[in-house]
Design brief:
Radius of gyration: 20 Å
Number of domains: 1
Number of strands: 0
Low-confidence stretches: none
């Protein structure tokens, strides 16, 4: 097998990435669960941060280029605008899927109550902690691991489609909830595609953070106040229709913006190369 690490020190081997991944799952399963159970919502911040710790330790220990290994590449304004619209559309479709699956395979009441309790907001401090942990840290940490380090490595050794699917499956497994596995896998596919096409986790971070933020807002809003959006069992068909109507053209525009940025980057690198030769 070709050793891609020799030509790019920011690339890890599949073996290295899977060791990091399983170390992360072990840490989250035992330490993360214990932290949340013992400390409650006040310790959610630490629990979310645990998911990126093995990766950070590995990158620091072996002096691997931080921005490149986690795919923290810049994006332009056009990519950001299309990402915003896509994030709202994907959230509506994912939420509709979540309610549909929930109707077919209801989550046990104790699990559902525990999830609601974790994101329930009583004070401004709780709101701030939840925003930092579940929106900001989760958005960045999970994308750095699954779409940055894991998917980037898989894209080198496998087809992009396989890399996106595998990273999405691991993403779902890491949430340790079989009743949301299908919905999280769907979200992971969207996150993986945005990352692959833009060669940056930043669009995925925004989508991930938007999904978590809106989920928290909805779970802390009474059902009577959300009748404009839908019911507990389904999303209003108007919003679902708009989401499907918007998502296809937005993906086309997103793809075009990514290709234009890559062409501009290649041209800039070519000009810089010519300048250095002179």
């Amino acid at each position: 097998m070709t050793d891609y690490h020799d030509s790019d020190p920011s690339l890890l081997t599949p073996r290295q990435v899977f060791i990091i991944l399983f170390s992360t799952l072990f840490l989250m399963m035992f330490v993360g669960t214990a932290v949340v159970l013992l400390g409650g919502r006040s310790m959610a911040l630490l629990s979310e941060a645990l998911i990126i710790m093995p990766s950070l330790v590995f990158v620091w220990r072996f002096k691997i280029p931080f921005l490149r290994v986690f795919r923290l590449n810049r994006i332009n304004g056009a990519i950001f605008v299309y990402t915003v619209i896509l994030s709202l559309s994907v959230f509506v479709i994912s939420d509709a899927l979540d309610r549909f699956v929930g109707n077919l395979f209801p989550m046990p009441a104790e699990w559902l109550d525990a999830m609601k309790e974790l994101v329930h907001i009583d004070t401004p401090l709780q709101a701030a902690l939840l925003f930092v942990s579940a929106v900001l840290i989760a958005g960045f940490a999970e994308e750095m691991l699954f779409r940055g380090m894991l998917q980037r490595t898989l894209e080198i050794y496998r087809e992009p489609a396989i890399a996106i699917v595998l990273s999405s499956v691991f993403f779902a497994v890491a949430h340790f909830n079989p009743w949301t596995a299908l919905q999280i896998t769907f979200l992971g596919l969207a996150l993986g595609y945005l990352t692959w096409k833009s060669d940056s986790i930043l669009p995925g971070v925004f989508l991930h953070a938007t999904n978590n933020l809106l989920s928290i807002v909805f779970m802390n809003t009474s059902e009577a106040s959300l009748t404009w959006y839908g019911t507990e069992k389904q999303v209003n068909m108007i919003w679902l229709f708009l989401a499907f109507a918007v998502i296809a053209p937005m993906f086309v525009l997103f793809n075009r913006a990514c290709e234009e940025k890559k062409a501009a980057d290649r041209q800039r690198e070519s000009l810089l190369g010519e300048h250095h030769e002179e």
